[in-house]
């Protein structure tokens, strides 16, 4: 009997849903059952999701803690991830990927020697000729404060009072001849050269500091390869490496 029904079904016509009547074509395509099924499934899926969210909100523990609460914050009512502090600059990353610690240490020592040579040539004189520190003079009465003359107290010419270096006394100026150039153009040229040397010195000092930090970071990564237990004490920054405390281990 079942085989007869199957044979009968193979002979029957396929069911076709009617299309949109001609006078209703302005309303668009007529929705078929398969279209309705897709729309109904989507609607029920959304309703089930909303019901699950309502239940989750009702059952939520107000004292519940998530670690993401630390790494995110509200911005205009929307949760946004906190930006992490920069741990390493692009320059440091590039050097650490392409060079080893021996090269970095060699460059740092080279910069340190050049810095010492520049310091010995410049004698740490101020490039602007202005004194950074303050020199305080003490007097006994208020009248002496009002009548105080710095050039006479230092026994030098008023034009040389602001100098940090090479400030001769009046007796020295009267007794000795002026040595060196007195041409204004040459003096300006010497001032520019001195400023350039100080600029080079500051750049080399900064470069030596950078190489020192990079060397420390490379050495820290080498130390981390050891299987000894360790605890991070402070995070890495662009100016300092990460600090770890290693477990004391007796060497045999």
From TrEMBL:
Domain of life: Eukaryota
Pfam families reported for this sequence: Utp11
Swiss-Prot/TrEMBL keywords: Nucleus, rRNA processing
GO CC term, one of those recorded: small-subunit processome
Primary subcellular site in the record, as a coarse category: nucleus
GO biological process, one term: rRNA processing
InterPro entries attached to this UniProt entry: SSU_processome_Utp11
Region of interest (Disordered), ranges: 1-30
Subcellular localization: Nucleus, Nucleolus
Record keyword Zinc present: no
Residue intervals passing through the bilayer: none
Record's compositionally biased regions (Basic residues): 1-16
Function: Involved in nucleolar processing of pre-18S ribosomal RNA.
Family from the record: Belongs to the UTP11 family.
Subunit structure: Component of the ribosomal small subunit (SSU) processome.
Protein name: U3 small nucleolar RNA-associated protein 11
Source organism of this protein record: Megalops atlanticus
């Amino acid at each position: 009997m079942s085989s007869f029904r199957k044979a009968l079904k193979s002979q029957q016509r396929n069911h076709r849903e009617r299309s949109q009547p001609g006078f209703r074509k302005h309303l668009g395509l007529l929705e078929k059952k398969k279209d309705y099924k897709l729309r109904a499934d989507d609607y029920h899926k959304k309703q089930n999701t909303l019901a699950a969210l309502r239940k989750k909100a009702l059952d939520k523990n107000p004292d519940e803690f998530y670690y993401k609460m630390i790494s995110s914050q509200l911005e205009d009512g929307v949760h946004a991830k906190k930006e992490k502090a920069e741990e390493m600059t692009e320059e440091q990353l590039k050097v650490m990927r392409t060079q080893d610690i021996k090269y970095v240490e060699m460059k740092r020592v080279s910069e340190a020697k050049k810095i010492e040579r520049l310091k010995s040539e410049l004698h740490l004189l101020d490039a602007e000729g202005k004194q950074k520190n303050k020199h305080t003079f003490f007097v006994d009465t208020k009248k002496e404060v009002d009548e105080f003359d710095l050039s006479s107290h230092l026994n030098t010419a008023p034009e040389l009072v602001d100098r940090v270096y090479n400030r001769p006394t009046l007796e020295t100026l009267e007794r000795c001849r002026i040595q060196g150039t007195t041409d204004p153009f040459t003096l300006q040229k010497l001032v520019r050269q001195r400023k350039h040397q100080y600029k080079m010195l500051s750049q080399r000092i900064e470069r030596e500091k950078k190489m020192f930090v990079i060397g420390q970071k490379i050495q820290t990564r080498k130390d981390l390869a050891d299987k000894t237990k360790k605890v991070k004490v402070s995070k890495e920054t662009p100016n300092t490496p990460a600090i770890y405390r290693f477990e004391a281990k007796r060497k045999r």
